[in-house]
Design a protein that fits this description.
Elements lengths: L2 E7 L12 E7 L8 E9 L2 H6 L13 E8 L9 E4 L6 E4 L12 E2 L17 H14 L6 E5 L4 H12 L3 E6 L2 H10 L4 E4 L5 H8 L4 E6 L3 H9 L1 E9 L17 H6 L3 E4 L9 H13 L7 E5 L4 H9 L6 E5 L1
Parallel strand pairs: 8-9, 8-11, 9-10, 11-12, 12-13, 14-15
Antiparallel strand pairs: 1-2, 3-4, 3-6, 3-15, 4-5, 5-7
Helix pairs in contact: 2-3, 2-8
The structure holds NADP nicotinamide-adenine-dinucleotide phosphate.
Length: about 325
């Protein structure tokens, strides 16, 4: 009998998640039925969407999330023993799965592609869901052209740093907005962003006017709230906004929303939200393009790795508070 460690949603989050909100328990897994396989977690993801989706989850269920795991037993020929698999199995050390993608997020369950010498953990970041979010969410919605000015918020996170680098690959001028000067140094010195704004210490409106007097053509929005209203007010006519997330409101639902519609009307902006599963049918295209860019030296990545399944909660809260550079993952 296989035992699994599982984090159960015990109490709804109020503000920033607190330790007692999730409970770590041990459960026995049932024997495999035909079509099923047993996965042992190798790397697990902590993502902002977990906080955003939590209010809609029933109490008592395993907390939601994706992982890269290794298949230990199998009664499904498409998922053979010894292969790595990516799936939305939740915060669990061991899982019984059947390969169906009928999870809450409609994201695919799939055998991890061959990344060569690169870490399998990248299947949760630059070569997985966040990477595809950057690739499709930016290129398909912003449709950037060489010479245009692009602003990215949440710029040092998993999706944001990747979007900025794609914008550089496409010949754009890129300004990143993030929460520390160390992050800014990484974005400008290593990733070759043109400019950086620290939203915690700088006047974002003033900085944008100085750094982009020509106006902003594309905005990739990871954060929402005041930062986004300020960016949109500095956009050019017919600018394009890809709304990816709104992390500024995930822990704080009390903030008074500013009116962004004036900027949308006056600049005649095209604003479009998306969920990355829109491109499930092109999933491997995104991974292969990002892998090719890494291998060509055009795309860099960083991971903030926390050791130990038991430390998932800390890794999650630290990510929500901005401790991560690039993708936050947990090594089981
Ligand atoms: N639409 C989709 O399909 C899709 C898919 C994936 C992700 N997303 C969204 O994309 C965004 C980024 O996700 P990610 O996985 O790449 O996470 P991430 O950026 O790696 O991590 C979250 C970051 O958010 C920043 N942050 C936290 N509170 C903030 C606040 N009040 N204002 C501004 N920034 C804040 C922190 O960096 P600082 O130090 O800069 O504050 C933190 O590092 C999230 O909104 C997420 O929900 C959407």
């Amino acid at each position: 009998m296989v035992k699994s460690k599982v984090f159960i949603l015990q109490k709804q989050f109020e503000g920033l998640p607190k330790p007692g909100d999730l409970k770590l328990v041990e459960e026995e897994l049932p024997p495999l039925k035909d079509g099923e396989f047993l996965v042992e977690a190798v790397y697990l993801s902590v993502d902002p969407y977990m906080r955003a989706y939590a209010p809609n989850l029933p109490l008592g269920i395993p907390f939601i999330g994706s992982q890269v795991g290794i298949i230990k037993e199998s009664k499904n020929p498409k998922f053979p023993v010894g292969k790595y698999v990516v799936g939305m199995f939740g915060w669990r050390s061991h899982s019984v799965a059947n390969g169906e993608s009928n999870n809450w997020a409609s994201l695919p369950t799939y055998i991890l592609p061959d990344f060569g010498k690169l870490s399998t953990s990248l299947g949760l970041g630059v070569l997985g869901m966040p990477g595809n979010t950057a690739y499709f969410g930016f290129l398909e919605i912003c449709k950037p052209k060489a010479g245009e000015t692009v602003v990215v918020s949440g710029a040092a996170g998993a999706v944001g740093n990747h979007v900025g680098q794609i914008a550089k690959i496409k010949g754009c001028k890129v300004i990143g907005i993030a929460g520390s000067d160390d992050k800014g140094k990484w974005l400008v010195d290593d990733l070759k962003f043109d400019h950086f704004i620290n939203y915690k210490t700088q006047d974002v409106d003033k900085a944008l006017k100085e750094l982009a007097p020509e106006g902003i053509d594309c905005y990739f929005d990871n954060v929402g709230g005041e930062i986004s209203t300020t960016v949109m007010n500095n956009m050019n006519t017919f600018g394009r906004v890809s709304v990816c997330g709104s992390i500024s409101g995930y822990n704080d639902r009390t903030s008074k929303a500013s009116v962004v519609q004036f900027a949308i009307v006056m600049k005649q902006l095209k604003v479009e939200g998306f969920i990355v599963s829109r491109w499930n049918d092109r999933w491997s295209e995104g991974i292969q393009q990002n892998l090719a860019w890494i291998n060509e030296g055009k795309l860099k990545y960083k991971e903030t790795v926390t050791e130990g399944f038991e430390n998932m909660f800390n890794a999650f809260v630290e990510m929500l508070q901005g401790a991560n550079f690039g993708k936050a993952v947990v090594k089981a």
